[in-house]
């Protein structure tokens, strides 16, 4: 908030309001069972949204992620169920398909100059058609409910120590990283946060982490899907904020010409970001197929459906990733997808029709984009006023 970044605070406040409203309408909403189910349900959409963040950071958009997720699920189901390919090999092929599709989009955009909007919109149609072709006349292939992919969303670590260990590791890791960053900034003569602020942030994180662990342990324990999602968030955040390549991504989002003059391979970075988006879309599609134990783009919740694309983009933007590039992080997805899934879960408990859910989700997305635009406009006015001599 000191740096003018009030977005995450507003999202957290909004999430608290959503939870309080739905709990008041149905006391089962904040039950350990429902919160654990939300923790599993956010993973598929969340993974797709993380890939969207990488593309949004360079001021582009990928409209094909929903179709790519459906294609990955269909490729896995056809290979494993119809042709008897081992699950582990079918998973690798399905993820590789997503990576290849992302590279295809990136080459057309970066090297041939076709706008990303057009390339990925065409991809949305192409890959959706290919998915329907692979699935055949039935449009649905059921996967093994006891298999590797199905266990991604059904497996839980029942021991209480597992959830508490993850909470402790996460809190300790944040504390060590924050203190190390403070030491580096202090040694370089750069602004650094006071020690008490780091400890306050750590304490707040510990409260949230251990409360979540306690809630999960009251149901079935730590879900495997949620653990994988958290690992992806940590790795993605480290790549973007702690590596030279990540700094190039943010630099490209800040301005193409400035990045090119700084010696950054703009085309290579663009292709790589679309490959990341395609890969995570494929992984997310496998998690969605796992939750449904089937590959089918014909239902609203399935991979390949239009709602998956809309929810993924909404999760990234609501969490704080800017549509104008250069601002955002993978952790913003966690907040955004919690808002989206909390609305969906609350509506489902109340028996509200999907039409109302779509309108509410759209309204929240519009509010998030409007807030981002107003924030940038205010920052631009502030910059101009500081540049004007008194």
UniProtKB/TrEMBL annotation:
<dbReference type="InterPro" id="IPR001851">
    <property type="entry name" value="ABC_transp_permease"/>
</dbReference>
<feature type="transmembrane region" description="Helical">
    <location>
        <begin position="356"/>
        <end position="374"/>
    </location>
</feature>
<keyword id="KW-0812">Transmembrane</keyword>
<feature type="transmembrane region" description="Helical">
    <location>
        <begin position="331"/>
        <end position="350"/>
    </location>
</feature>
<feature type="transmembrane region" description="Helical">
    <location>
        <begin position="115"/>
        <end position="136"/>
    </location>
</feature>
<feature type="transmembrane region" description="Helical">
    <location>
        <begin position="198"/>
        <end position="216"/>
    </location>
</feature>
<feature type="transmembrane region" description="Helical">
    <location>
        <begin position="156"/>
        <end position="177"/>
    </location>
</feature>
<feature type="transmembrane region" description="Helical">
    <location>
        <begin position="7"/>
        <end position="25"/>
    </location>
</feature>
<keyword id="KW-0472">Membrane</keyword>
<feature type="transmembrane region" description="Helical">
    <location>
        <begin position="37"/>
        <end position="58"/>
    </location>
</feature>
<feature type="transmembrane region" description="Helical">
    <location>
        <begin position="222"/>
        <end position="240"/>
    </location>
</feature>
<protein>
    <recommendedName>
        <fullName>Xylose transport system permease protein XylH</fullName>
    </recommendedName>
</protein>
<dbReference type="Pfam" id="PF02653">
    <property type="entry name" value="BPD_transp_2"/>
</dbReference>
<keyword id="KW-0997">Cell inner membrane</keyword>
<keyword id="KW-0762">Sugar transport</keyword>
<feature type="transmembrane region" description="Helical">
    <location>
        <begin position="302"/>
        <end position="324"/>
    </location>
</feature>
<keyword id="KW-0813">Transport</keyword>
<feature type="transmembrane region" description="Helical">
    <location>
        <begin position="271"/>
        <end position="290"/>
    </location>
</feature>
<comment type="function">
    <text>Part of the binding-protein-dependent transport system for D-xylose. Probably responsible for the translocation of the substrate across the membrane.</text>
</comment>
<feature type="transmembrane region" description="Helical">
    <location>
        <begin position="88"/>
        <end position="108"/>
    </location>
</feature>
<keyword id="KW-1133">Transmembrane helix</keyword>
<keyword id="KW-1003">Cell membrane</keyword>
<feature type="transmembrane region" description="Helical">
    <location>
        <begin position="65"/>
        <end position="82"/>
    </location>
</feature>
């Amino acid at each position: 908030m000191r740096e003018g970044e009030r977005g995450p605070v507003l999202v957290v406040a909004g999430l608290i309001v959503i939870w309080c409203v739905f709990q008041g309408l149905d006391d089962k909403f904040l039950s350990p069972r429902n919160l654990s189910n939300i923790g599993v349900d956010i993973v598929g959409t969340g993974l797709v949204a993380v890939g969207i963040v990488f593309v949004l950071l360079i001021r582009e958009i990928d409209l094909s992620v929903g179709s790519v997720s459906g294609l990955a699920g269909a490729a896995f189901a056809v290979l494993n169920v119809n042709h008897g390919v081992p699950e582990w090999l079918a998973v690798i092929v399905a993820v590789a398909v997503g990576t290849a599709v992302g590279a295809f989009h990136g080459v057309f955009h970066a090297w041939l100059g076709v706008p990303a909007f057009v390339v990925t919109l065409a991809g949305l149609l192409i890959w959706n058609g290919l998915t329907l072709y692979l699935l055949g006349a039935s449009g649905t292939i059921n996967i093994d409910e006891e298999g590797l992919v199905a266990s991604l969303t059904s497996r839980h670590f029942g021991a209480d120590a597992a959830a508490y260990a993850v909470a402790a590791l996460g809190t300790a890791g944040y504390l060590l990283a924050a203190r190390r960053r403070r030491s580096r900034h202090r040694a370089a003569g750069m602004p650094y946060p006071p020690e008490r602020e780091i400890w306050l942030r750590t304490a707040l994180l510990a409260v949230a982490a251990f409360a979540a662990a306690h809630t999960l342990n009251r149901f079935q324990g730590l879900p495997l899907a949620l653990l994988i999602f958290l690992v992806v968030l940590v790795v993605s955040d480290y790549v973007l904020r702690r590596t030279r390549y990540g700094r190039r991504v943010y630099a490209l989002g800040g301005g193409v010409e400035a990045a090119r003059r700084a010696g950054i391979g703009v085309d290579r970075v663009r292709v790589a970001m679309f490959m990341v988006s395609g890969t995570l879309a494929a992984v997310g599609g496998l998690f969605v197929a796992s939750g449904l134990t089937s590959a089918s783009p014909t239902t609203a919740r399935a991979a390949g459906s239009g709602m998956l694309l809309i929810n993924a983009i909404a999760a990234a933007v609501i969490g704080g990733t800017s549509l104008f590039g250069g601002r955002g992080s993978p952790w913003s997805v966690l907040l955004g997808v919690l808002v989206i899934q909390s609305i969906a879960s609350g509506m489902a408990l109340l028996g509200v029709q999907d039409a109302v859910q779509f309108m509410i989700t759209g309204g929240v997305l519009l509010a998030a984009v409007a807030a981002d635009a107003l924030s940038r406009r205010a920052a631009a006015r502030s910059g101009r006023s500081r540049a004007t001599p008194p």
